[in-house]
Amino acid sequence: MAKIGVFVCQCGNNIARTVDTADVAKDASEQSGVVFVEDYKFMCSAPGQEAFKKAIRDHDLDGCIVSACSPKMHEATFRNAAEAAGLNPFKVEIANIREQCSWVHNDKEIGTAKSKDLTRMMIQRVKYNRPLERYRMTMTKRALILGGGIAGIQAALDLANAGTPVTIVEKEPSLGGNMARLSETFPTLDCSQCILTPKMVEVQNHPLITIRAFAELEKLDGYIGNFKATIRQKAKSVIDKDCTGCGDCWEKCPFTVESEFDMNLIKRKVIYIPFPQAVPTVPVIDRANCPKFLKDKCGICADVCGPDCIDFTQEDEIIEEEFGAVIVATGFELMPNVYKEYGGSSMPQHLIPKKMNKKQRAAQPRSTSGRLPDVINGLEFERLASASGPTGGEIRRPSDGKKPKTVVFIACVGSRDASKGVEYCSKICCMYTAKHTMLYNHSVDDGKAYVFYMDIRAGGKGYEEFINRAQDEGAEYIRGRVSALRKKGDKILVKGADTLQGCAVEIEADMVVLATAMVPQADAIDFAKTLGISYDKHGFYSEQHPKLMPVDSSTGGIYLAGACQGVKDVPETVAQASAAASKVMQLFSKEELMREPEVAIVDKEHCMNCWDCVTVCPYLAISPEEVKDRNGNVVKMVANVNPGLCQGCGLCNTVCRSKSIELQGYTDQQVYAQITAFEGAFV
Amino acid sequence: MSKGIVRHDFEPKIMGFVCKWCTYSGADLAGTSRMDYSPHVRMVRLPCSGRIDPQFVIKAFEQGADGVIISGCHPGDCHYNEGNYYARRRNLAFRNLMEFNGIDIKRLEFSWISAAEAIKFTQIIDKFTNQVRDLGPNEGYRALLDPYASRLVKSSEESAA
Lengths: 683, 161
Ligand SMILES: Cc1cc2nc3c(=O)[nH]c(=O)nc-3n(C[C@H](O)[C@H](O)[C@H](O)COP(=O)(O)OP(=O)(O)OC[C@H]3O[C@@H](n4cnc5c(N)ncnc54)[C@H](O)[C@@H]3O)c2cc1C
Hints:
The complex is a heterodimer of chains A (683) and B (161).
Chain A: E1 4-9, H1 21-29, E2 34-40, H2 46-59, E3 63-68, H3 71-84, E4 92-96, H4 98-102, H5 108-126, E5 135-137, E6 143-146, H6 150-161, E7 166-170, E8 184-185, E9 190-191, H7 192-205, E10 209-213, E11 215-223, E12 226-233, H8 248-252, E13 256-258, E14 267-269, E15 271-272, E16 284-285, H9 291-295, H10 300-304, E17 317-323, E18 325-328, E19 332-334, H11 358-363, E20 375-377, H12 378-385, E21 406-413, H13 429-443, E22 448-453, H14 463-472, E23 476-479, E24 482-488, E25 491-498, E26 503-509, E27 511-516, E28 518-520, H15 524-531, E29 543-545, E30 549-553, E31 558-560, H16 570-588, E32 593-595, E33 600-602, H17 612-616, E34 622-628, E35 634-641, H18 651-655, E36 661-663, H19 668-676
Parallel strand pairs in A: 1-2, 1-3, 3-4, 6-7, 6-18, 7-10, 18-31, 20-27, 21-22, 21-27, 22-23
Antiparallel strand pairs in A: 5-32, 8-9, 11-12, 12-17, 13-14, 15-16, 19-28, 24-25, 25-26, 29-30, 33-36, 34-35
Helix pairs in contact in A: 1-5, 2-3, 5-19, 6-7, 6-16, 12-13, 13-14
Chain B: E1 14-19, H1 23-32, E2 41-46, H2 54-62, E3 67-72, H3 83-101, E4 108-112, H4 118-135, H5 139-144, H6 149-160
Parallel strand pairs in B: 1-2, 1-3, 3-4
Helix pairs in contact in B: 1-4
The structure holds flavin-adenine dinucleotide (FAD).
């Protein structure tokens, strides 16, 4: 026989005014299993809680109902009090007679009848509440950061400065990401390298940060607190620990190819660091282009290397490491193939329909085909304007190195138009275009900058002012789209419309800069699958909740930072990176991982392996498990819930045909018990 | 505000199955904002509208409910990302079976109510209460029931107690 206590709270007069609490208590006392009732002024007050605890001890209660306010308010209070009195906290339920009765129904008779009903329903329910234990799990207090752009750098520093060991995995030979390419940054025009490189050096020198550059994550297993990462350290052909970064090898290397870092505007050596301030300063050999690997010729780098650290036989290394949390900061790229008007395709490579086979995909023109040499994108312009770039910061056009006298900037290229690319607004382009006009005006005194725009979106601190400044400094803004670019002599004829004047415009430009949309990295979707996180239709990673959990991914223990989650500028990226880092700190601040026990459990005897639960689970928390007999032979497969991943939604419980998986705390029995107690009496 | 609520000849009994993140919180907000609404609904709090088994609804009708209300987060707002989509699909399929079961589909209400929509919550409750009141007692269904069913439930419940 159950021994249930019912505690009816008057909440001062909040409940008692419109609910006859004494009557509710009396009705409860008549229910089977109820051995103790109390009608009290303030249950949540210190004496109220003491009375609650005393009743549990004195009457050896095995279930309690507190008929009071919403469980959101004081469920935790009474569960903790019960625990202190020796009763399992999950044997306490709240009947909500304030928000649902006294505050909304003025008729005392009716309010009392409803309160009795709600209390009765809870009394029946609590009889089926099982004592539950919170899950305790150990965790590895180390964080893995994927991507070494400004997002990854900021998150790593925040975490390491708080005492957490961090590993950064960056696929390129150096940290820095796209921010390293920028010349100066809006809205203050401070030099990007000047603010970024000190942070990169700080990362390099930090005792708690391990940098794995030129490496990629191959596999991620496990769950929050206990991930196991398989990392492929690509062969640099250089022995990391011996290299001093002196630079003799790349100075002497006689072979060159186009530099990816410099947007193919200039050549780099075959053994190289992407840019002079690279971190780490260890070079890598580009094996696809190195004659030593192609035809076993050369080898000069090995001859000149003082510390003898060139190793042509080095192989990729597979590293397995454990982490408790992961921050994804893999950033963005600019939409390739936006040169549709000039014969290219406007679709970014990874958005091209899957129907095409590999060959057809590869045949899709990428950046350079069919484009005019002096039509460049934003990042290419950044390199032209950068003091460390191919032109030493003088703006000269790629085709012949002349200073362009007229430059046309085109905004919203590939964005805000699904038929030309993507539907969303790339958000930062208005700002960087304004910045580009200024950089251009500062570099070419007698130059003229035109901007074709759709709308100006400058909703940030100091952003509108920045646009005004660009216009004051001479940029001419034309509202309208460009319909065609044609080669005319050594110039480009820009044909467009001015929708404010209502006329067609033609400008003969020396150079055209396209403000192309930011899109996710080409491999973003495949990478999301490796990680087991969800993504939107463009390939940006989805946050757990668009408003309240903007840095949690859909998977526990994996957090998002920077442009991989959506279009962002540097200040937003940094803020999100710090937020992700603080989420990890919060996770690591406890001794062990505590998980609420309201998760699904499987009745292994009755599970008939239909895997419906596996299909519906939004968290990939359920997986097949082998059941073996005494001799170790597999006799059947059953579902198994990983409590580390389960979030307690109960979708599996609802779809289970054999009713062999249930959500603890919300089992079928509990709900049915509640329904059977339903009388619905009006008065 | 009026002290008494008008009594009608017939007052419907209504059961609600709601998700705790949106609709239950919306009801809480209606409470903190002291909004008056029909007192007929008794709500069962569940983690997600995707946790609502159609059998809960049948059980509620069996137990004498004249109407059942199901409510969860708006599409796209589900705390668990997709639970409410399952609820929606299940509701569509289940509606067709309801008639077959001898229950007027007007006795089942399906809605999206967010945690901020206290007004919408009270409006839906009021509207649905009136609708069910107009339909009258759910006698047709009760008549179909096995007369021993309620006794069976009682005994199992006592054994648990
Ligand atoms: C033309 C242009 C001008 C801009 N100007 C400004 C400006 O003036 N001011 C401003 O505030 N913002 C500006 N921005 C925006 C700014 O560049 C971004 O906000 C910022 O770089 C985002 O940083 P991130 O770390 O998220 O991504 P990224 O800088 O893209 O870094 C991502 C890093 O992750 C690495 N990576 C990717 N995939 C993997 C993988 N699978 N495994 C391991 N590593 C991986 C990449 O190699 C890269 O190093 C500009 C952007 C553009 C395009």
